[in-house]
From TrEMBL:
InterPro entries xref list: DPH3/4-like
Keywords: Signal
Biological-process GO terms, alphabetical: protein histidyl modification to diphthamide
Cellular component GO terms held in the UniProt record: cytosol
Lineage, top ranks: Eukaryota, Viridiplantae, Streptophyta, Embryophyta, Tracheophyta
Signal peptide bounds: 1-24
A GO MF term: metal ion binding
Name assigned to this protein: Expp1 protein
Length: 242
């Protein structure tokens, strides 16, 4: 099934926390975020993040549907899509470089999603408006016997940025930066969006996923400095903030 979103951002990057390259096999042959699949450890898993206005994710102003559902007509509302393929149960940092993409210009909210008949989608998360941008997120994917059950944003109630004057805490849940500090508005901060991803639940052989447990037990954002291949601009941003 094709994704009913016109533009695909090619600037999405997955960086894993694996300190050295481990050869492992990927037996998941599903590469579309709008197709169902079941996975096991070491597989890749494709999912999408759609950026749009909050209202665009709701059908008839009331029911939130998967961005794969054509009834939403996301393409006509100018939504943008990023597709990622992280490795199952590896802690990954997903980055969306916004030097040519300003999330507020396409509506400022994002939804993570995968699947068709067994579609799972997160609630819409605020990313940016003309005043503020939230640049760090934690996303948890919950599987049961290898099938995606649930995708949710994990928030820390601004504890990662409290007392830091570079940040503003919005709605007691999101650490936001003023867009005037961002490079794309003439400031000095690379406001690329970083999404820390972790897995919970079990794979199709009922092997338990550990990555969410690991993330939860570390200070969530202290992990950013550990991503090896991440562009310096982004790591140094997080290192100096957290
Ligand atoms: C849309 O919502 C209205 C008012 O709540 C309802 O009367 C109508 O049946 C809904 N349409 C569909 C297609 O669900
Ligand atoms: C941007 O979002 C913040 C937090 O929800 C809100 O307080 C502010 O009024 C918004 N600004 C604009 C210009 O919409
Ligand atoms: C984003 O892209 C710009 C321009 O290509 C580049 O200078 C910058 O380092 C990139 N940032 C990240 C975090 O990859």
């Amino acid at each position: 099934m094709a994704i009913p979103v016109t533009s695909i951002l090619l600037i999405a990057v997955v960086t894993t926390l694996t300190p050295y390259f481990v050869e492992s096999s990927d037996n998941n042959h599903v590469f579309s975020p709008c197709t169902d699949t079941t996975v096991q450890k070491s597989d890749g898993f494709t999912f999408g993040i759609a950026f749009a206005q909050r209202t665009s994710f709701f059908f008839n102003s009331s029911v939130q549907l998967s961005p794969c559902d054509r009834r939403l007509s996301l393409s006509s509302s100018g939504a943008q899509l990023s597709v990622f393929r992280p490795k199952v149960d590896e802690i990954s940092l997903l980055t969306v470089n916004n030097s040519n993409f300003q999330p507020d210009s396409v509506g400022g909210y994002m939804v993570a999603f995968a699947g068709r008949k067994y579609a799972a989608r997160s609630i819409p998360a605020f990313v940016a408006n003309s005043t503020y941008i939230v640049t760090s997120f934690t996303l948890v994917m919950e599987f049961q016997k290898g099938r995606l059950q649930n995708i949710y944003w994990k928030r820390d109630g601004c504890s990662s940025c409290s007392g830091n004057s570079n940040f503003v805490c919005l709605n007691n849940q999101d650490c936001a930066i003023r867009t005037t500090s961002c490079k794309y508005r003439g400031g000095s901060v690379d406001c690329s969006i970083g999404i820390q991803l972790a897995f919970s639940g079990t794979d199709k052989h009922e092997t338990v996923f550990n990555s969410w447990y690991e993330v939860k037990n570390l200070r969530q954002y202290s992990l950013f400095g550990l991503y090896k291949n991440l562009k310096d601009s982004l790591t140094s941003q997080y290192n100096s903030f957290f």
